[in-house]
Amino acid sequence: MVDVLCVPFPVLQSSPSLSFKPRLRPLIPPLRRRLHLKSNPLLFPLFSSSPSFFKLPPRCSSSPMPLQLSSLSQDRLLYSRAYWVTKTIIAWNVDVVEGSCYLYASKVAALSVTDNGIQGHDLEIKLEEDRSGLHPYVIEKFPHIRDYKAFKLPPVLDAKNLVKCQLAVAEFNSQGKCRNATGLQLPGVLDELFSYDGPLGAFYSAEAVSLCLWAPTAQAVYAHIYKDPVGGSPLEIIPLEETNGVWSTKGPKSWEGCYYMYEVSVYHPSTLHIEKCYANDPYARGLSADGKRTLFVNLHADDLKPEGWNELADMKSDILSFSDISIYELHIRDFSANDDTVNADFRGGYMAFTLKDSAGVLHLKKLSKAGITHVHLLPTFQFAAVDDEKENWKYVDSKILEKLPPDSAEQQEKITAIQDDDAYNWGYNPVLWGVPKGSYSSDPNGPCRIVEFRKMIQALTHIGLRVVLDVVYNHLHANGPFDKDSVLDKIVPGYYLRRNTDGFIENSTCVNNTASEHYMVERLIVDDLLSWAINYKVDGFRFDLMGHIMKRTMVKAKDALCSLTKERGGVDGSRIYIYGEGWDFGEVAKNGCGINASQFNICGTGIGSFNDRIRDAMLGGSPFGPPLQQGFVTGLLLEPNGHDHGTKDVEKAMLASAKDHIQVGLAANLRDFVLTDFEGKERKGSEVLCYGGTPVGYALCPTETVNYVSAHDNETLFDIISLKTPVGISVEDRCRMNHFATSIIALTQGIPFFHAGDEMLRSKSLDRDSYNSGDWFNRLDFTYNSNNWGVGLPPKQKNENSWPLIQPRLADPSFKPQRSHILAAVENFTDVLRIRYSSPLFRLRTANAIQERVRFHNTGPSSVPGFIVMSIEDAFHTLW
Predict the structure, then answer these.
(1) For 127, phi and psi rounded to 5 degrees?
(2) Distances 682 to 450, 670, 847 between C-alpha atoms, Å
(3) In the chain, N or C terminus with fewer CB closer than 10 Å?
(4) pLDDT tier at 692, thresholds 50, 70, 90
(5) What are phi and psi of 766, to 5 degrees?
(6) 3-state secondary structure of 203
(7) H or E segment to which residue 305 belongs
(8) Do the beta carbons of residue 323 and residue 703 sit within 8 Å?
(9) In angstroms, rounded to a whole number, what is the distance separating the alpha carbons of residues 672 and 851?
(10) What is the mean pLDDT of residues 490-496?
(11) 812: annotated active-site residue
């Protein structure tokens, strides 16, 4: 075997003080042919695609399972266990005692691994361990690698070109034997070198259209310009020029109204190749049907604005304080898909909200008059799983379903057979965040969806309702270089999606977690929120799985929105309310990826979070516990259902504890609110405990708490009451329990939140997760003739384990409410809302005001079980 001297390529700037230690390694025949490049390959034009030889089998980058390797192999590079965190530091969890580490790069993705090292490289650089460890700034940004070793790179390295290559690091023992090798994760160095605050997306002037795309790892970018939304050859293919990671070009004004796609040549870690990716613009503001192409559309054009649009901000209902807010959660399709008073062409879409006298609109007017201030719309951005073209939808004849028994399994069989091809999905599978969903519009091509979305916002404003959008920035539907719905992972692979310490995409949210701890991910989120607020005059945002987003991002978003004024942006940003799900789980739990926007971290920011404590205390257990476990509202101790809760003493303690949790919630779930607990002790809200010692109270001001008892997730309120209460009680009793639950929420300090239909005894036939259960199980009837109870066993996939409990209840006709019950429920609900808005005492604005005025009676060990007695003291001095 012959030894050869390996010297790094001259990607280092000339420096007389810089020296290299040559390393001897065995000369191994290359696994694929080497490309003979000029002396400085990283400073010459880069190849636009990978060579066609030696193709590796594709491997999904989102695989949560580690690869099984018997020895060093090519698959080793599918891992990315090292982190390039700053221009001069690589972090890697290896111990190098007497051996050495090297960085390798290949511009054409030709790296391969053998027991003797890395082959196919254009560049090899020796790394020196930095014994001082990682800088505190790096640890703050990447806390999960705080114990990794720090390895130094030469400070004059041309890192900006190097990040465009396939990269790997390898560790050798003192005999030159390769012991370990892995790919690199690049977000740290990309943030340091390429963070950018300039224009992105498409921009319009009187003479031209400009495009800007952030893609620092791309080797080449082209814009394909099309006349039509689908089919046909490009009118032209325009190369973009790069300046510090941003690719741009300028075209004629005639592009406006056309479509475009980006062609991005970039190394993709999921395939180990330079891939030619075709993607939409991450900053798209218009699309063709199903997001096949990005639409050149100027949202400021007058012909896209409904009459009176520019004055809409002045017509918004007055909100003197966020404490005055109450929220009604609604799915766009649910609102009108089953409403015969709506024109058939408008059902299930944006335009249904523009009618003046449909059953649904009349119901919203009734709620608005009673006090509801905000309608929270489930996802309205471009999401996957529903075809934008209506002619492609499949249906089940509802007349056939109506003839089936109420406890039959046939309904769900027919619905699930077409569930991926029908018109229904909640929409928590985002493709592009910044464009309205095409399936809700009359025409998914062109600007129609934009105009109709604005008309919907305008119509809701006219009946006194502000609009909250459900935003899903915590994950994306697709990843990789080939999926048609993948966008961000084609533009800058490995950057937008959070990866674990093996380099595979985290999936704890459900799939493809995003990484708001990375600068340009955070920027995209904030820019998107500003676009919805300015261009669509949206009044609030509900963040799905907010705990998976960094607190810094949420605060930056709040500040950016709050800075908007009618003069700067056309809206009053100080009246935009944001809230979300502050659950703390997965890789972000306990600040695992940085300080996240969990319930406990977000307090003090003025951002709201859902209070699951009051929900669970009222209903019993949790959505993930025993289905028959009862709570304060569903009959614990006082109306036993046969479930084994323990002894009577245990049940009494459970009921008393649940009452304390509810009382803290009634006091806005404040951390420092002092009350007398069931033992007779004075405790702060944070000293009342649940969930294995987790504090109940966490908020610092009332508007940081969103109190609710039901939402789109899990069973509806009426369904969970029907499941948990004894089978022998009357439907009237269940209706009273439903009213009791909504009344508690309506009279809480903080922000009350209601799922659409809570006020109408809404049922989904006991479906616990109706995200893809079609119109049939999700129907709303605003004529109050039916609450949708007993329309068949709910879909098998999520409910089969509970079918033995569900079936006898659905089969029993006494469980089904009549029209009189529904009408009474609506009247009772609106009456309690009117009480809430009859006095500012029910909407106190500060923690101090709540502590001074809210009192609970019937407390301590001698209290009567099952009774909550609350008083709110009036006075002559100011109420806040």
Answers:
(1) -100, 140
(2) 55, 15, 17
(3) N
(4) confident
(5) 70, 25
(6) strand
(7) none
(8) yes
(9) 9
(10) 98
(11) no
- pLDDT tens, position by position, 73-83: 668 899 999 99
Whose tokens are 């209601």? That residue is 754
Q: 399: number of CA atoms within 13 Å, CB side?
A: 0
Give 694's contacts (C-beta < 8 A, 6+ positions apart): none
φ and ψ at residue 222, rounded to 5 degrees = -130, 150
> Which phi and psi (to 5°) does residue 746 adopt?
-65, -25
Choosing among 2.60.40.10, 3.40.50.300, 3.40.50.620, 2.60.40.1130, the CATH entry for 3-193 is 2.60.40.1130
Can 544 be counted among the known catalytic residues? yes
* CATH class held by domain 322-383+424-771+812-857: alpha beta
Weakest mean pLDDT among 27-31, 286-290, 334-338, 502-506: 27-31
Q: Provide the 3-class DSSP secondary structure of residue 463.
A: coil
pLDDT at 50 over 50: no
* DSSP assignment string, 388-419: S-GGG-----HHHHHTS-TT-SHHHHHHHHST
Q: What DSSP string describes 474-523? A: SB-S--TTT-TT--HHHHSTTTSB-B-TTSPBP-TTSS-BB-TTSHHHHH
- Can you read off the two tokens belonging to residue 504? 């595979």
Q: Name the catalytic one among 544, 584, 715, 775.
A: 544
Tell me, what amino acid is at 170? A
* Residue pair 594/557 in contact by the 8 Å Cβ criterion: no
Partnered with residue 676 across adjacent β-strands are 682
Among all chains, which residue has been given the structure tokens 């390295």? 157
- Rounded to whole angstroms, how far apart are CA atoms 376 and 337? 18
**Within the chain, which residue ranges are assigned CATH 2.60.40.10?**
200-304
Domain boundaries 200-304, CATH class:
mainly beta
b/e 331-353 (16+ beta carbons within 10 angstroms → b): bbbbbbbbbebbeeebbbbbbbb
The active-site residue out of 242, 387, 581, 584 is: 581
Q: Within a 13 Å sphere around the CA of 256, how many CA atoms are in the beta-carbon half? A: 15
698: closest CA among 582, 594, 541? 582
Query: Which residue intervals of the chain bear CATH 3.20.20.80?
Result: 322-383+424-771+812-857
> Length of the chain, please?
880
Closest CA relative to residue 82, chosen from 711, 540, 532, 503: 503
- The pLDDT score that the predictor gives to residue 876 is 55
Overall pTM surpassing 0.70 (yes/no): yes
370-395 burial code (b ≥16 CB/10 A, e <16): bbbbbbbbbbbbbbbbbbbebeeeee
- Alpha-carbon gap, residue 671 to 685, rounded angstroms: 5
Query: What whole-number distance in Å separates Cα of residue 689 and Cα of residue 681?
Result: 13
The pair of structure tokens assigned to 36 is: 């003979």
Beta bridge partners of 246: 214, 243
User: Residue 598 is encoded by which pair of tokens?
Assistant: 């969990």
Contact 261, 276 (CB under 8 A): no
pLDDT tens-digit profile of 199-244? 999 999 999 999 999 999 999 999 999 999 999 999 999 999 999 9
Q: Where are the beta strands (DSSP E) in 597-646?
A: 608-611
Cα separation, 445 vs 244, whole angstroms: 34
